[in-house]
Amino acid sequence: MISIEGLSVAFGGNTLFDNITYVINKKDRIALVGKNGAGKSTMLKIIAGLQAPTSGNVNMPKDLTVGYLPQQMNLSDTRTVMEEAEQAFSHIFELQSRIERMNTELSERTDYESEYYQELIERVSNANEQLALIGASNYQAEIEKTLIGLGFTREDFGRDTSEFSGGWRMRIELAKLLLQRPDVLLLDEPTNHLDIESIQWLESFLSTRANAVVLVSHDRAFIDNVTTRTIEISLGRIYDYQVNYSRYVVLRQERLEQQMRAYENQQKQIQDTEAFIERFRYKATKSVQVQSRIKQLAKLERVEVDEVDTSRLNLKFPPAPRSGDYPIIAEGVGKNYGSHVVFSNATFTIKRGEKVAFVGKNGEGKSTLVKCIMGEIPYTGTLKIGHNVKIGYFAQNQASLLDESITVFDTIDRVAVGDIRTKIRDILGAFMFGGEASDKKVKVLSGGEKTRLAMIRLLLEPVNLLILDEPTNHLDMRTKDVLKQAIRDFNGTVILVSHDREFLDGLVSKVYEFGGGQVREHLGGIYDFLESRKLDSLRELEQRATVSKTEKDGNISKDSASPAQSEDSKLSYGEQKEFARRLRKAEKVVADIESEIAGLEKRIAEVEEKLATPDGAADTSLYELHGQLKKQLDDVMWKWSEASEVLDKLQK
Question: Less Cβ around it within 10 Å: N or C end of the chain?
Answer without folding.
Answer: C
